[in-house]
Design goal:
The complex is a heterodimer.
Chain A (H helix, E strand, L loop, with lengths): L14 H10 L3 H13 L3 H26 L3 H9 L1 H33 L6 H17 L2 H13 L3 H5 L20 H14 L6 H4 L6 H29 L2 H5 L4 H6 L10 H32 L3 H18 L3 H38 L1
Chain B lengths: L1 H18 L5 E7 L6 E7 L5 H14 L5 H7 L5 E4 L4 H6 L3 E6 L6 E5 L28 H11 L5 E8 L5 E8 L5 H12 L9 H8 L11 E3 L2 H10 L2 E5 L5 E4 L17 H30 L7 H11 L6 H21 L2 H21 L5 H14 L5 H39 L1 E2 L2 E2 L53
Helix pairs in contact in B: 5-8, 9-13, 9-14, 11-12, 11-13
Classes of the chains: A mainly alpha, B alpha+beta.
Chain lengths: 362, 493
């Protein structure tokens, strides 16, 4: 049923770490602190850990399902619902991933427009960016993994630079611990989980992993690594900003960069934002790759044709979003979709798959 | 039977008819003193050392007794004597410096003996890849001499030299060299297949071959390493690589290769590993510097003044105060001047070239600052960048680096730092996608192979070079048998 993927197009298990990590790190890192502090205040860091634990659980379910169905999400859908219903369900994912790409790209452009170039024209930048994305997608999954790899390795120096804020930090901000209700913390965890979105891509690139059972360790490590980064950032941010000031700051991470001063660089946020271009690049690539691959599997259109077509849709979508409000509406909508897909639909699918397996075994 | 004989002779006659138009074609007849047999030499006088013919061959043939061509082999005092009954050999042999000997009356038998005239350079010190320490011989144009240089370095029976000829007109001889029990046969097959697939009539140099057998024809990056050093070739062979030497070209080609290999000079292996690693890192840094410095200047001065601390900005602004041009034009003007100087310097004889360099560098540079066309700072930066681009040990890569600066400049003008990162992403993706003989170009960084770092950005000591590069998937991954490697002693033992 599934065309076999040639061995030389597959990736080593440890690279899964980079693919999942790079998909998860996106624009969210720049502004998640305010969102978790909204409901849970400075207990927000607990929400980071809670969300991370949930994600480990969902990831485990995904691996179980993939092992049962042997393949990707499409094979799971066919396994459980049969061919036609499976196809219809899978095709929703094309829409989801396209809008994910649009959200990431448009949010990034928004940041650039606010912080660097107020007169950057969305269309032209998106056009060049998407041409780059198509060039990567044409290189196949190994190229995408490569760009994911570099997008984690090359900008990793940035994480160290946050240490510049420590002289100005006041860690007593974090005290007292646990002064928010469980409900608040759970609400914050739900918000936090949006920043972790991206691991669902595993459902699609699973057939591209050599010895997939070995990749489990790496994908869980990816989540652990990202949790560490988020915790580190959250704690530094909470120590750096008083709570009221944080609420007025949409991108606290960027504001923190302002304090960094090197002998030859005064305003580090410019370099940081430019660097972020490399970080969000795999987001768009993986999303577009999955969308075009789904189109290929469901409607048997060649990826060489479907990828540019989908990119044109993304380009149109990105240029149509003009105001901050519109961007927010789309971001929230995609976030909600992602939440329901990962934390409602996947567990549900997991249970149904288990039942289907039992039934078929009889 | 008789018919074929006649037909064969006709072949020879027809060939002679064409060859007679050439002035250097000779067809001489002589008679043996004892048996009175008439024989005939046919050769191209420009390719033949006529002294061999006169001093060695002719006296023997005139005086010694022989009846037919088969006897001649023992009489001629030359080792390379071949007897053939195939008329189609004649053309190929004549143009490779053989003399055709025929006996009049004996059809369908041809005797060839070698009497090539050796014309060409003798071995000189390397010019492009000169090294202060180490061997000082470089390849020349003659294939035989080059092969001799390689064979002498690796006197083992496993060193295989395959030969094939490419090009409908030039019939260029190409040698594929590898060590049989070390190399990965897949690599040899790839290169052989690609060489055989070449469809072009005239192969003038190994540079033609590089471009024709590359994995990606549209990439500015060279995908085979070229070298003029026999020592580099022999050590690449020992690593398990495949070498291609083209007749008429003093540059051998080595593959598969990686991106970082282009920044390793062979002199690195003659120096202590610490020093060698340091030099390599400097070279890599200078490449990054050379590509990025002008674009960053343009980006910062066009868009991000705020990025620079105040003190530094003062200096920058002061030097630019009189300049009426926007930074991009200023930068392009200077970059093009440097490129002009380089082109002019490369085309002119050395002595004139030096003068031009001084005139260009000092006069134009100072004058353009004084005329207010450029700023001092940019002049320094561009001169440094040009200098840095010449540190790459492989000339071909240096060209690529200089070329890459221009797209980066354009992107920097378009979107400042963001543009530079975007251009960098394009470059990165291109490098990720690139392969050399089907092996990843960015190895050992991506795909990540820790062991191969030992000889990439840095070069570790020889004691840690016990394994051949994983990239090559060699038949014998280990270079040395580690069973008798010395055990480390503890203090005071």
């Amino acid at each position: 049923m599934n065309p076999v993927i040639p061995e030389n197009k597959k990736i080593s298990p440890f690279l899964v770490f980079f693919v999942i990590n790079s998909m998860q790190t996106g624009v969210g890192v720049l502004g998640f602190q305010r969102i978790i502090a909204k409901s849970a205040g400075y207990d927000g860091w607990i929400a980071v850990i809670l969300a991370s634990i949930c994600i480990h659980f969902v990831l485990w379910m995904m691996y179980k399902m993939l092992e049962i169905a042997g393949g990707d999400l499409i094979s799971i859908h066919t396994f459980v619902f049969g061919k036609t219903a499976g196809k219809i369900l899978s095709s929703f994912y094309i829409l989801y991933f396209c809008s994910l790409a649009v959200t990431t790209l448009r949010n990034f452009i928004e940041i650039v427009q606010v912080w660097m170039f107020s007169d950057l024209i969305t269309f032209w930048f998106a056009l060049v960016f998407l041409i780059l994305v198509i060039y990567i997608v044409y290189g196949g999954f190994r190229t995408i993994t490569g760009i994911s790899f570099f997008s984690i390795i090359l900008p990793s120096y940035i994480w160290l630079l946050f240490l510049f804020t420590i002289p100005y930090a006041n860690f007593t901000n974090l005290l007292p611990i646990f002064n928010h209700s469980t409900k608040d913390i759970l609400l914050a965890s739900k918000d936090m989980s949006l920043s972790f979105l991206g691991f669902e891509t595993l459902l699609f690139f699973y057939p591209f992993i050599k010895r997939p059972e070995k990749s489990k360790k790496w994908s869980h490590l990816a989540i652990v690594f990202l949790t560490m980064i988020y915790l580190y950032l959250a704690i530094l941010t909470f120590a750096y900003f008083p709570e009221e000031q944080l609420q007025k700051n949409i991108w606290p991470t960027l504001t923190m960069w302002k304090i960094i001063e090197l002998p030859f660089v005064e305003r580090f946020e410019y370099i940081g934002i430019a660097n972020w271009c490399l970080i969000i690049l795999p987001n768009a690539c993986i999303a577009l790759w999955i969308a075009s691959r789904l189109t290929k599997q469901l409607f048997s259109v060649k990826q060489r044709i479907s990828a540019p077509i989908l990119a044109v849709f993304c380009l149109i979508g990105t240029s149509l979003l003009m105001t901050r409000d519109q961007i927010n509406i789309l971001t929230d909508f995609v976030g909600q979709c992602g939440f329901y897909i990962n934390f409602m639909y996947v567990p549900l699918l997991f249970i149904v798959t288990l039942i289907a397996k039992k039934v078929k075994e009889r | 039977m008789k018919k074929t004989i006649q037909k064969n002779n006709q072949d020879k006659l027809e060939l002679e008819k064409i060859l007679l138009k050439s002035n250097d074609f000779e067809n001489l007849s002589f008679t043996n003193e004892k048996t009175k047999i008439k024989f005939c030499f046919t050769y191209m006088s420009t390719l033949i050392d006529e002294k061999i013919l006169q001093d060695n061959v002719l006296p023997a043939l005139l005086k010694e007794e022989f009846q037919q061509l088969d006897d001649v082999k023992e009489i001629i005092p030359i080792s390379d004597v071949q007897i053939s009954d195939n008329a189609s050999d004649i053309e190929q042999k004549l143009f490779n410096g053989y003399v055709l000997l025929t006996i009049i009356g004996e059809y369908n038998k041809y005797c060839f003996f070698a009497a090539q005239k050796e014309v060409g350079r003798t071995i000189n010190p390397p010019e492009v890849e000169f090294s202060v320490i180490g061997p000082k011989e470089a390849f020349v144009e003659s294939l035989d001499m080059n092969l001799n240089l390689v064979r002498k370095k690796l006197p083992i029976k496993e060193l295989i030299i395959e030969e094939l000829s490419v090009g409908a007109l030039s019939k260029t001889k190409i040698a594929i060299i590898y060590i049989d029990n070390v190399v990965n046969t897949e690599n040899v097959n790839t290169i052989r297949q690609r060489l055989e697939g070449i469809q072009y009539d005239d192969i003038a140099d190994s540079s033609y071959i590089v471009q024709m057998v590359s994995d990606n024809h549209n990439s500015p990056f060279p995908q085979l390493l070229d070298t003029e050093r026999p020592d580099r070739v022999s050590s690449s062979l020992a690593e398990g690589k495949v070498v291609v030497i083209v007749d008429g070209s003093p540059h051998a080609l080595i593959g598969p290769t990686t991106f970082v290999e282009f920044f390793s000079s062979f002199e690195d292996y003659f120096l202590n590993w610490l020093i060698a690693s340091f030099f390599r890192l400097i070279r890599l840094f200078s490449v990054a510097f050379s590509i990025l410095v002008t674009p960053i200047y343009v980006a910062v001065l066009s868009y991000h003044y705020e990025l620079i601390p105040r003190d530094l900005l003062n200096a920058l602004v002061a030097s630019r105060r009189a300049v009426p041009l926007p930074p991009i034009l200023e930068a392009l003007f200077l970059e093009l001047t440097i490129e002009l100087l380089r082109e002019a310097g490369a085309r002119l004889p050395t002595k004139v070239g030096q003068t031009i360099g001084i005139v260009g560098g000092i006069v134009i540079g100072t004058a353009s600052v004084e005329a207010g066309l450029t700023s001092n700072v940019l002049l320094i930066l561009i001169a440094l960048a040009a200098l840095a681009s010449f540190t790459t040990p492989v000339y071909r890569m240096g060209n690529t680096i200089r070329f890459l600066r221009f797209p980066f400049l354009l992107f920097a003008e378009l979107w400042g730092l963001l543009g530079i990162v975007l251009a960098f992403c394009f470059l990165l993706v291109h490098l990720i996608r690139l392969t050399s003989l089907g092996r990843p170009y960015l190895e050992p960084v991506y795909p990540l192979r820790k062991v191969d770092f030992k000889d990439s950005f840095i070069r570790l000591s020889f004691s840690s070079q016990g394994h051949r590069p994983l990239l090559l998937r060699s038949k014998r991954p280990k270079r040395v048998d580690e069973s008798d490697a010395k055990k480390k002693k503890d203090i005071d033992e």
